[in-house]
Amino acid sequence: MAEIIVSFEGRTRDLNDFVFDLFEQHLLQEGITKEAPGEVTVVLKPMKMGKSALMQATMQVGLSLGSNVAVSLFAQWLYDKWKKNGEKQISVKIENRLYQFDPALLAKAIEGAAVKPPTKKPAASAVEAPSQRRPVSGGGKGRKKDQS
């Protein structure tokens, strides 16, 4: 089962309205889940808000894709939720690329992200060992070596 992080970016109020419609709940908290069409589970991630005149925010959700996933069905459901909410200025970010709300584009982006192998974090042993460090040169600031 693949998990993909999808970010929604826009004005805080627009995002709040959209996410409440997305999860169909009166109270939202990090970790809440929603079973969506197409065998996709949507999980709410932490919200990030920036201080600006427009009060921009980013809302992230994790998508857990089932074995018989129908991404186009899910993308159309997501698009319908956005359209029902008034087609507000919200961008979708998948794999660090921004997309508009278009079901075909979103389905293609999600499918592309699902087939990518997960990125591995470097192991703790990748840290430079003390024996591999360059020796610290002696001498204080401003000293010059004699060249006799």
Topology:
Blueprint: E1 2-11, H1 12-23, E2 33-36, E3 40-49, E4 56-65, H2 71-84, E5 90-94, E6 97-99, H3 103-115
Antiparallel strand pairs: 1-4, 1-5, 2-3, 3-4, 5-6
Helix pairs in contact: 2-3
Structural domain count:
1
Category from helices, strands and their pairing: alpha+beta
Name the helix and strand elements from N-terminus to C-terminus, one letter apiece. Answer: EHEEEHEEH
Largest sheet: spatial strand order: 2-3-4-1-5-6
CATH C-level name: Alpha Beta
Descriptive overview:
The protein has a single domain, classed as Alpha-Beta Plaits (2-Layer Sandwich), CATH 3.30.70. It starts with a strand and ends in a 33-residue tail after the last helix. It has a six-stranded antiparallel sheet with strand order 2-3-4-1-5-6. The protein is built from three helices and six strands. It is α+β, with helices and mostly antiparallel strands and 148 residues long. The relative contact order is 0.18. The radius of gyration is 23 Å and the shape is globular.
Q: How would you describe this structure in keywords?
A:
148 residues; alpha+beta; Alpha-Beta Plaits; six-stranded antiparallel β-sheet; globular
Short description:
This protein is α+β, with helices and mostly antiparallel strands. The protein is built from three helices and six strands.
